Amino acid sequence: MMQPSDRSQLYGYRIDKLLGKGGSSSVYRALDVKTGNVVALKLFRANFFQNKMHVRELGRSVKTFRKFEHPNVMKIYDFITGNEGEVLVIEYIDGPDMKWYMENRQFHLQERLAVCAQICNGMQYLHDRGTLHHDMKPANVMFTRKGVVKISDYSLYRAKLMGLFDSGLKDMITPMYIAPELVRKEKATTRSDIYSLGITFYYFFTGKQPFEVDSLERLYQCHLRAKPEHPSTVSNHVPAALGDIIMKCIEKEPAKRFGDCDMLRIALSELGRSRI
């Protein structure tokens, strides 16, 4: 539910509603008075950016992101920095996130597979343009009111600027969804995103996380060594073949995962086809 805003304007944008607050930012719905368009403003917390280099790096990235046009990728319009703080101007998405969808939509396998296909399409688009998401998770899968999936919050940090256990990076790579190679401080690749996508799909289809532990260190050890329960045994909604696909996404070694999101999407599409 949207809340009354704690401010009325930001960098000339007229603020209408506070959409939500998180560990890294506050997000507002606002009106671009110059164009009349409704947008969302992501106002980062003062301590989010570690240094000016990080701010400049995001600014450079946004110049690239502004060119992105895909129905399943949230549009990024601008990045503003000044005495009112650092603000990302993004597409306003008028629907809920994946968690709301899971809690409020009756389980229908083919419908959820269609959602996953849209996610794969958006992720492949980003990867084809040399962009890693770095923080794929349910909260970053949004829906319009017409049911179109929008991938949000992609690539808001660059690994070369932060160490793995820096507090800023912990905010960006949610521990439950981090790939084992990143725990090992190795380079992130498209297959690191596929691991995060696999954990997301595990939760999306079973309603449970693959690793339920009581400490961050144990969670990292699970990513490195523990094999989660097969999704088909966690939920009777999940066919064995779908569980196999999810388990392939979350293989410990990147080379054993799907080569790209197109291959993952094709594998998922085979589940809905007749075997005759």
Brief account:
With 276 residues, the chain is of the alpha+beta class.
Task: Please tell me about this protein's structure.
The structure is a single chain. By secondary structure, this protein is α+β, with helices and mostly antiparallel strands. The protein folds into 2 domains: 9-91, Phosphorylase Kinase, domain 1, CATH 3.30.200; 98-270, Transferase(Phosphotransferase) domain 1 (Transferase(Phosphotransferase), domain 1, Orthogonal Bundle), CATH 1.10.510.10. 37% of the residues lie in helices and 16% in strands. The protein is built from 10 helices and 8 strands. It has helices at residues 52-65, 98-104, 109-128, 167-172, 180-183, 190-206, 216-225, 231-234, 240-249, 261-270, and strands spanning 9-10, 13-21, 25-31, 38-44, 76-82, 85-91, 141-143, 149-151. Strands 1-2-3-4-6-5 form a 6-stranded antiparallel sheet, with helices on one face. The chain has a two-stranded antiparallel sheet with strand order 7-8. Helix 3 (109-128) runs antiparallel to helix 10 (261-270) and helix 6 packs antiparallel against helix 9 (240-249). The radius of gyration is 19 Å and the shape is globular.
In the CATH hierarchy, the architecture of the largest domain is Orthogonal Bundle
The end-to-end span amounts to 47 Å
Note the total helix count. Answer: 10
Strand content: 15-25%
Helix proportion range: 25-40%
CATH topology of the largest domain: Transferase(Phosphotransferase), domain 1
Element-level helix/strand string: EEEEHEEHHEEHHHHHHH
Total number of beta strands:
8
The biggest sheet amounts to: 6 strands, antiparallel
Placed side by side, the strands forming the largest sheet appear as 1-2-3-4-6-5
CATH homologous superfamily of the largest domain - what is it? Answer: Transferase(Phosphotransferase) domain 1
What's the number of domains?
A: 2
